[in-house]
Amino acid sequence: PTRVFSGIQPSGGLTLGNYLGALKRFAEMQKDGVETIYCVVDMHAITVWQDPAKLRQQTREIAAAFLAAGVDPARSILFNQSQVTAHAELAWIFNCVARMGWMNRMTQWKDKAGKNAEAASLGLFAYPALMAADILAYRATHVPVGEDQKQHVELTRDIAIKFNNDFGVNFFPVTEPVIEGVATRVMSLRDGTKKMSKSDPSDQSRINMTDDADTITQKIRKAKTDPEPLPDSIEGLKERPEARNLVNIYAALSRSTPEAVVAEFAGAQFGAFKPKLAELAVSVMAPISDEMNRLMADPAEIDRILGDGADRAEALARPVLDEVHDIVGMIRSR
Ligand code: AQP
What is the value of pTM for the model shown? Predict the structure, then answer.
């Protein structure tokens, strides 16, 4: 990768799924020769109504989570989306490039709008065009995301290709999703076939990044499992979604592989495995949540970091937007 972009919505507290599937990998992508641009996507969050005071608080909390997970504002650009107007400007142009049919096929749109699509916001429908603008305003080459966002990155590619074709240019790159590791889809602790999600009504279904050690331990102890002991190879996890999920979480938290975890715990009962997993989860997550609390005590410093990131993001996006306006035929005379 040469230029990486990714974002997280400030639409609620973050889960272990967001940490393992996104934040941890964002930090790992900070390497020499790679530009990393990370965004708290507040404009995406308001596609469903957000209380203004909560939106502000959650934006700072997500920024604190990025920092606590190891995103270094000296190496990476970290900002909130609405401070860089290029996102909204490019999104409008992409609204005119993308087709209604493409948006209609998005599974997240179908899930979130549900049966009452008539009452959903226009923004929720257009969400993937804004996401394409987030990525392509920087002509980013790679986007690290969880499995659930794959379809939206594919749509970003379609928009880039159609824009290039419509205007006879080779301007936007065809961005690659980066979906790798064992935690690209962390599942609910109550149902191994459902994604762990911040919007699940059951708090027992997820580990929140702000949960304390006792809460983490208690949620893992109560996590749904089957009565069998752990198998001696990962083939034995095939029809066991809950068991597989806990093994994958263990592997991701210990920077190991499911194969190695299964080899270590072959034949163990969940009564023995769960306390080990809880101990590991607490040892990884507690320092991160402590650091988040420390950062949250100084909101002015978080705002300063976001403002500085926005200045640097703006400097990258503005020349791209200038070229886009020119390609489309929009006069810039001042
Ligand atoms: N369970 C998960 N496993 C792995 N990765 C996940 N991500 C989310 N859930 C999991 C990844 O986290 C990044 C940020 O997600 P987001 O907040 O922008 O949107 P989301 O995917 O809608 O997150 P949630 O928690 O599932 O929220 P709700 O409940 O509102 O739908 C993305 O890279 C995502 O893949």
Answer: 0.95
